[in-house]
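Progress against Task 2.4 (sequence-to-structure conversion) is shown through the following example record, which the project officer requested during the mid-term review.
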Amino acid sequence: MIGTHQLITEDTFNIASRLKNIDSTYFLVFNHKTRKFEVHSREQRGNSLCLILPFSTLDERTLIHVKKTRSENRKQFLIEMEKENEKIEKEKIEKVAKNAEKETERAFRLI
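Structure tokens generated for the chain above:
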């Protein structure tokens, strides 16, 4: 363990070693301070951190997420993020409109 980071070399689903199939410079650590898994690269200068995983366990989702967020896939990743953000925004607007409609109906019933 280095400071708050623990190097992960073995895990149940061999995620640490399978990451090397995606990029041979990748290595996996667990940050005890943040309680998150992190993917780092030995080739990255300055700060080796590539991404913090949004999952509390290591499984196939880790590999999918790492592949999806690689720089060569950034254009498609950004398009997917924009679509998801638009969907969330639309759902928020629909919820606000529905609540406004209910409140308006309730207010007119009181008059």
